[in-house]
Design brief:
The complex is a heterodimer of chains A (130) and B (68).
Chain A lengths: L6 H26 L4 H27 L3 H31 L4 H4 L1 H23 L1
Helix pairs in contact in A: 1-2, 3-5
Chain B lengths: L3 E4 L1 H8 L3 H8 L3 H8 L7 H10 L4 H4 E4 L1
Antiparallel strand pairs in B: 1-2
Helix pairs in contact in B: 2-3
The chains are: A mainly alpha (130), B mainly alpha (68).
Amino acid sequence: MKIKSTLPAKRSFVSAVIWCISYLISIYVVTRLELSKTTALIISIIPIVTFAAFVYFYIKGIGAMDEVKQRVQFEAVVIAFSLSLLLVMALFLIGLAIEIDYDYFGYKFMVLYFILFYYIGYILSKKKYG
Amino acid sequence: MKDSISNTIKVERAKKNWTQADLAVKIGVSRQAVNSIETGKFIPSTLLALRMAKVFETTVEQLFQLED
């Protein structure tokens, strides 16, 4: 029996790195350089395209994993999604009652929280299945 | 009703003198996957259970049993 290739996993990792780099560069360029609105808009769309590519390769990568690894990924994503919804809901509800410091809970940090939630889910699920 | 499943993979491996890595290669999964299945942390799909039964030259029923 042939072992499944690790190439899809490598592709999804590389696409994640490309997305991260494009995201950071895009933030830097749009916030630090003086650009026309059109140029700024085009540059801010680039990470969306690279993220879409990452999602494509990630899904392909999951398809190439064995079933235990697939379960780990699915549980990690479910936990990350649930925690992300919880955070957004909590921020919205708390924001109705008191003023939230958006320097720490603005959109720019949401991505980091969501990635953190994925890794929390991944670690929990990985521990469960050894 | 939640049934738990026991298995005799470790016994069958010992009979063949295979390591978990050997079995993993034969059924096309990672060694970690074999470990998870062997220790009962993960219940394999029908396809994987059939592959295991085939490489051990036995039946799925002999490899996996419902626990009371």
